[in-house]
Automatic annotation (TrEMBL):
An example molecular function term from Gene Ontology annotations: phosphorelay response regulator activity
Highest taxon, organism lineage: Bacteria
Protein name per the record: DNA-binding response regulator
Entry-linked PROSITE patterns: HTH_LYTTR, RESPONSE_REGULATORY
SMART domains: LytTR (SM00850), REC (SM00448)
Domain Response regulatory: 4-117
Length: 251
């Protein structure tokens, strides 16, 4: 059974191009309609309840976020599209919502569609869009991150994270409240996401919130002692950069 989709895109050529990509590479998607502005998109979503919406961020005098704020429900998966590294991309990433940079690559499109269909198939209802709206209204340092666990999805403020520890394909987040959350993503993915937000990868298997470093020990090559009293070995190749960051303490 095909998933009903809506394309929201103000440029006709881009609408047609994405529709053609979906027809050729995503046979499990039925493009039920295409909208070129906020009013058309809101009307179709409220009337026909698509399962997936491909949402252009920039819509002439409005944005795709205006569409999402005006619809009466959010019981659909969203895949954002944008022609450049939009200011909102970080907020989208932290909310665990997919986006595609134009020109759209068919393999990335297939991956995003497959992920959306999996979410639909397990009826995974969550508050990712609510988290996105909150992150869009905050400075980046106040973002929360969406963490998918075996039990569901948790939304965790960055300032509550002390450190991250990798174990194979899994990453465990250690929090200020002494709780921990394990997710099935490797540490490299979070390194790319968190490095610009006051986090630093000290070691192959450890990343720390620099605000939560209590002290540094010189013994045995060096350790960072965290506010939860964990002692994290410092990789020799990371030591100079870590010392420089802590000396500036611009976090």
């Amino acid at each position: 059974m095909k998933c009903k989709a809506l394309i929201v895109e103000d440029e006709m050529l881009n609408r047609v191009f994405l529709k053609n990509l979906l027809e050729e590479f995503c046979p499990n998607i039925e493009v039920a309609a295409m909208a070129e502005n906020v009013e058309e998109a809101v009307t179709f979503i409220n009337t026909h309840s698509p399962e997936i919406v491909f949402m252009d961020i920039e819509l002439q005098t409005a944005t795709g976020f205006d569409v999402l704020q005006q619809v009466t429900h959010h019981s659909f998966e969203v895949i954002f599209t944008t022609a450049y590294d939009h200011y909102a991309i970080k907020a989208i990433k932290f909310s665990a919502i997919d986006y595609l940079l134009k020109p759209i690559n068919f393999e990335e499109l297939q991956q995003a569609v497959d992920k959306a269909i999996r979410s639909i198939s397990v009826k995974e209802k969550d508050n990712r869009l609510e988290l996105l709206f909150k992150n869009l209204q905050r400075p980046p340092d106040d973002f929360s991150i969406s963490l998918s666990t075996s039990e569901g999805i948790e939304f965790v403020p960055l300032n509550q994270i002390i450190r991250l520890e990798a174990k194979g394909p899994y990453t465990t987040f250690f929090m200020k409240n002494a709780n921990s959350v394990m997710v099935s993503k490797n540490l490299k993915e979070y390194e790319l996401l968190l490095t610009d937000h006051g986090f630093f990868r000290l070691h192959n298997s450890h990343m720390v919130n620099l605000r939560e470093v209590k002290k540094m020990l010189k013994a045995d090559g060096g350790y960072a002692v965290m506010n939860d009293d964990a002692m994290i070995a410092i990789s020799p190749r990371k030591k100079d950069e870590f010392v420089a960051l802590m000396a500036r303490r611009l976090v």
